[in-house]
Design goal:
It is built from 19 helices and 31 strands. The longest helix is centred in the middle third of the chain and has 19 residues, at 311-329. Helix content is 28%, strand content 26%. The chain has an 8-stranded mixed β-sheet with strand order 5-4-3-6-2-1-7-8, covered by helices on one side. Strands 24-23-25-26-27-31 form a 6-stranded mixed β-sheet. Strand 29 (586-591) and strand 30 (594-601) form a beta hairpin.
């Protein structure tokens, strides 16, 4: 070990400055907090080039007395702490006396200040800790700090600064937090000669949140006002349906100081448990008032972390405050079922005064849709024939449509349509009667058992809408040559009906059905294949995007979608526009931490596009790597996941069959983009073994 040396003053100051001044936002935070501590009611912040070349903070506070100007720039010189007992009850934002000394050690600083009782103001210049100018000056009451050329004498520190846009966004985030913490102070933020934030300073927190976080956040929030055990919790918390994909909108303030508190965060999310979807997080602006002696803010040089003497009361206060606010202030969105006008007009209520049945109506077959293969009598369904029900009394007509269509026609002189649930398998004709009871409140439709008649299937009608009588079944059409060739390939059998499909390896495959609206069931030779339709579809879309680039699938939205973001998210998106462009997103800077999405991949809708932008911004912020291919790949994952068929979605048999066919096109489809298997296989032997057959 070498000799122990006492560091020179300027070297020691540079080392100490590194704990306080990390980037321009650190300087702005210290200066604005000093302005608020001085009793200012108006603060103006101005930056140029992200704050690297110029930062100016002006206030109308008490100012610095002329005799104290030089002392203000000495290390550990402060007006907020006198004796050690003061450290146990710190009620000001600053207290260490390190900010000005650290700033002037790494920048060129100029000060204009005037106390209320002074006749003239003071103009003071200091660079790198060395005084250059001290003179009288004419200036208004208050203080103005001008900081130029940050890290001009520490080139190594300069290399670690980010782009001007990133640094400016970091400054904007700091100003936002200070504005939210003190709604009674009018904050003006000017960025590169453009005014981007103005708060009224009227003490109305709703107006302040509206100015900083926007209308959407304010309109989707409920008020919090609670006290428990001497701890007060006030502010606003977002409703569960307005939760976000990250915690970027969670803002906690303890005694007017912005902090990052795991205790408060855990209490907030625990209060929202059961209301917010998994993977989503509530936003908030919560002011926690606690006796100064119960919290220690002297933990970190940036004063952004705090420690509580007892965390439990803080947790309980935040938990009960948020929980009660959501229960009282949040209302479940009501679904109003609009009355069906068609059903209301089924019958002229002024004429029909009592229930009636349709058993009196004669059912005549008008059109028969032949099946490719005769079906068993027990697979009968309603709606195979277009039929006309003639009213022998009123002369009204009701048409029964094909499966998947509607009943249409007139009863009592009014048009009406009744939905018919489609069946997968067409069926032969059966005599059907319906009992329709209509009262003054709500129509009810119920099936009526009647004597079954099984006439021979009629021949196809010669003309559309021509009434015909039952006739012999038509002859089965001869297969065309191309159909014969198709049948030589692999076939999927669904409900005992063979349908030719594309070749998937020479195996005869039978589509069995779908379980839980999520898993496709396929019988292949002596195996039973279960396929996760969401995972498979997600992989197919992902591979398509990755192979052919997202730009190919970009489509312009009918109306651009505005996506409000936090300052950090906003910076991540605007600095990585090329990543979004390669994936099919066209994004414009709308200002005010908002971007406009003008185009998006055709796989997703406008709502998912906004959420995708937000999640991608969080991903960029979390990873911090500037690897565009990694960002693009993650974005493809997100797009594929959002646009794929979801578990629980209703899918037609043909859609499920097509998914199975595509699964055989590439071995990559065996796993979804997240690594989960898309299918599992059970052999016939395994099944029979479970039943004791082998």
């Amino acid at each position: 070990m070498g000799r122990i040396n006492v560091l020179e003053k300027h070297v020691a100051e540079l080392i100490a400055a590194g704990e306080v001044v990390e980037r321009p936002s650190s300087v702005i935070k210290e200066l604005v907090e000093n302005s608020i501590d001085s009793g200012a009611t108006s603060v103006t912040v101005e930056i140029q080039d992200g704050g690297i070349t110029l930062m100016r903070v002006s206030d109308n506070g008490s100012g610095i007395m002329r005799d104290d100007v030089r002392n203000a720039f000495k290390r550990h010189a402060t007006s907020k702490v006198r004796i050690k007992e003061d450290l146990d009850a710190i009620g000001t934002l600053g207290f260490r006396g390190e900010a000005l000394a650290s700033i002037c050690a790494v920048a060129r600083v100029e000060l204009l200040t005037k106390a209320k009782d002074d006749q003239v103001g003071t103009h003071y210049k200091i660079e790198g800790g060395d005084e250059l100018l001290f003179e009288d000056s004419g200036c208004p009451d208050g203080t103005t700090f001008i900081v130029r050329n940050l890290f001009y004498n520490v080139p190594a520190r300069m290399k670690f600064l980010k782009k001007n846009t990133s640094e400016a966004n970091a400054v904007a985030a700091v100003v936002d937090k200070i504005a939210l913490s003190h709604s009674e102070v009018a904050i003006t933020f000017i960025r590169d000669n453009k005014r981007v934030l103005v708060t009224s300073g009227d003490g109305n927190e709703k107006n302040c949140i509206y100015s900083v976080l926007g209308r959407e956040f304010m309109n989707s929030s409920v008020k919090v006002d609670y006290e428990l055990g001497g701890i007060t919790v006030k502010g606003f918390v977002t409703k569960p349906q307005a939760s976000r994909a990250s915690r970027s909108m969670q803002n906690f303030f303890i005694n007017g100081r912005f902090v990052k508190s795991r205790t408060a965060m855990a209490a907030l999310e625990e209060a929202c448990r059961g209301m917010v979807m998994v993977g989503k997080f509530p936003g908030c602006v919560l002011h926690i008032g606690i006796p100064c002696g119960l919290v220690d803010v002297n933990v970190h040089p940036a004063k952004i972390e705090v420690r509580f003497v007892n965390e439990r009361p803080v947790f309980e206060a935040v938990y009960h405050a948020v929980r009660s606010a959501l229960i009282d202030g949040d209302t479940v969105k009501q679904f109003k079922l609009q009355p069906d006008k068609a059903l209301e007009n089924l019958v002229d209520k002024s004429v029909v005064k009592k229930p009636f049945t349709m058993s009196q109506y004669e059912v005549k077959q008008i059109e028969h849709i032949p099946s490719a293969k005769p079906v068993r009598p027990d697979k009968t369904s309603l709606g195979v024939y277009k039929s006309v029900l003639d009213d022998p009394v009123g002369g009204n007509t009701v048409v029964l449509g094909d499966p998947g269509h509607t009943f249409g026609g007139k009863i009592g002189g009014a048009a009406a349509e009744l939905s018919v649930k489609p069946h997968f398998q067409p069926a032969p004709s059966r005599s059907v009667s319906l009992d329709i009871s209509i009262d003054d409140d709500e129509p009810a439709i119920s099936p009526v058992k009647s004597e079954e008649k099984r006439p021979e299937p009629p021949s196809p009608p010669q003309e559309e809408n021509e009434l015909i009588t039952p006739a012999a079944a038509p002859e089965k059409p001869e297969p065309q040559p191309e159909q014969t060739a198709e049948r030589e390939k692999t076939e999927i059998i669904a409900d005992d009906e063979i349908k030719p499909i594309a070749d998937v390896g020479g195996d005869v495959v039978r589509f069995v059905g779908e379980a839980f609206k999520t898993y496709i069931i396929i019988e292949k030779n002596s195996e039973l294949v279960l396929i996760d339709k969401h995972a498979l579809h997600e992989r197919i879309i992902y591979e398509k995007l990755r192979r052919e680039q997202g730009k190919k699938y970009a489509q312009y939205l009918l109306e651009p979608v505005a996506v409000p973001l936090s300052k950090a998210q906003y910076g991540a998106v605007t600095e990585n526009k090329e990543v979004f462009s390669e994936s099919g997103f066209e994004i414009d800077d709308f200002g005010g931490s908002t971007v406009l999405v003008r185009s998006a991949p055709s796989f997703i809708d406008a709502f998912d596009a906004a959420a995708t932008i937000e999640e991608m911004a969080d991903h960029i912020l979390d990873n911090k790597k500037n690897i565009e291919s990694e960002y693009t790949d993650w974005l493809y994952h997100n797009i594929a996941c959002r646009s794929a068929i979801k578990g629980g979605d209703k899918s037609s048999p043909q859609e499920l069959i097509d998914l199975y066919i595509k699964m055989g096109e590439s071995p990559d489809y065996r796993y979804c983009p997240h690594g989960r298997p898309t299918s599992i296989v059970m052999t016939k032997y395994q099944i029979e073994k479970q039943f004791g057959r082998v």
